[in-house]
Amino acid sequence: MLVFGHRGFSGNYPENTMLAFRKAVEVGADGIELDVHLSKDGELMVIHDEALARTTGKEGFVCNYLRSELEQIKASKTQNDRFDESIPSFEEYCTFASGQKIVTNIEIKSGDWWYQDIERKTVDMVYRFGIQDRVIFSSFNWLSVVRCKSIAPEIPCGLLFAKEQDVKRVAYLAKDHGIEYLHPDFHLVDQAMVDDCRRTGVEMNVWTVNTPKEMEPLIRCKARSVISNYPDMCLKELGR
Length: 240
Ligand code: G3P
Ligand code: CA
Known about the structure:
Bound molecules: SN-glycerol-3-phosphate, calcium ion
Order of helices and strands: EHEEHHHEHEHEHEHEHEH
CATH topology: TIM Barrel
Number of helices: 10
């Protein structure tokens, strides 16, 4: 089973910051999950919410600010402002990832906001830094996932979901579109689901798995990977 740091090692460090990404690598995570949006000048930025308030304390939305402005904004609110980290551009992240072996799960946050060409821009950046062999695209917006798949069929993709689904049907839908993974909320996952998907030729990367109690059934089910705020805990549970 693979272990991804959710927004980096976000349990102990400010989410979606370079510090959280470095710390996930330091504890031995196999991968990093992060979220991308577009700035006012159309640049890819790594942050979870459309609005800046929760992670930075600032007013407004990512799309109201230029990249150069966002890069100056402290993004440490999720850890009580204890760290001096700012919002990273996706370019900064890719510079880091190009020197690492880790896999990056790039979640395209195109659900609530329409960002022109975000999928094309993400694919282009991944190729510019040569990390295309170590990337998974995912989104709750399945049109975005299909778009990524049609732009770069060679890069694996996952369909994200948080609500109950007819998983067999979703697995067939994924398979039919050449999509390799389902990315369900861990509450939805059981052995039958993992087995049904596997029979269809689709694997499961499950989020957000934050306690040993949550890990245990997923280890038993042999899910492909877990995405956790505490990658260190997951690795320990796996005896790694
Ligand atoms: O990609 C898994 C997970 O990150 C999806 O939910 O809200 O944490 O981005 P969210
Ligand atoms: Ca995410």
